[in-house]
Design brief:
This protein is α/β, with parallel strands linked by helices. Helix content is 22%, strand content 33%. Helix 4 (200-212) links the parallel strand 10 (193-197) and strand 11 (220-222).
Length: 234
């Protein structure tokens, strides 16, 4: 049986992206690679001290950077009132080590000659940042890329990347009603690919809107393992 590889790596830098939102940049371990749209298990010291992993010290996080940027970026909200995990993370210092393991991409950028729509809520935009960077570096196989993000805080993230160009449209709204109206408009494209990232409730609401407008389940891409898809798409 193959032993799971755990990479312990230090925090290089902490970047405040918006009020209560931070990117923790981790040193790149030798041999560690990932694709755009990847997620990883991000764990704190002590998570594997007992026979069973301490799940309160583990989170499933998207990687918000690409390998050529030289760091593993984990972008997350850390509010004043937060979980034990977030409060420990908030108090960590540069050089303190965290663990990453079970890294996988369920949502790489598909280059099938179609329009691609990235639908997200809040900090879910972090999952899509690498896809946009990958597209901006090489646009082949994607007719047009469109990002739609809803964030009631109005503190929209990654403005340096999510800025409209000839082949890329970045759209932001600050409420769910405006978001669903925009999704309805986008769903007029019956041949597009629709990536959705956010809470489970957000996924379900968005999928209902898309399916009611004739978008097939094969056109909807979620950052979920295959065994989880039926729960959302059926």
């Amino acid at each position: 049986m193959k032993t799971m590889q755990i990479y312990w790596t230090p925090i290089q830098q902490v970047v405040q992206e918006a009020p209560d939102t931070y990117t923790f940049k981790l040193e790149l371990p030798e041999g560690f690679m990932w694709d755009e749209g990847a997620h990883t298990h991000f764990a704190l010291e002590g998570f594997n001290k007992e026979d069973r992993p301490n799940r309160s010290l583990i989170r499933h996080m998207s990687i918000s950077t690409l390998p050529h940027e030289g760091a593993i970026g984990i972008t997350t909200r850390v509010k004043p009132e937060c979980s034990t995990f977030k409060s420990i993370l908030r108090d960590m210092n540069i050089g303190d080590e965290v663990a990453i393991f079970k890294t996988h991409s369920n949502a790489p950028l598909k280059r099938d000659g179609k329009n691609v729509y990235l639908l997200s809520a809040g900090v879910g935009l972090a999952t899509f940042r690498p896809l946009v960077l990958d597209y901006l570096a090489k646009g082949e196989g994607v007719l047009h890329l469109h990002s739609l993000n809803v964030d009631s805080s109005k503190e929209y993230l990654f403005n340096d990347v999510f800025a409209s160009t000839n082949g890329f449209t970045a759209e932001f709204v600050d409420n769910r009603r405006a978001y669903h109206e925009a999704v309805e408009t986008l769903a007029a494209d019956k041949d597009g690919l629709y990536y959705v990232v956010g809470s489970d409730d957000f996924l379900r609401e968005t999928i209902v809107t898309l399916r009611e407008r004739g978008i097939a389940r094969e056109q909807i891409v979620l950052d979920k393992h295959d065994f989880q898809l039926d729960d959302f798409l059926n």
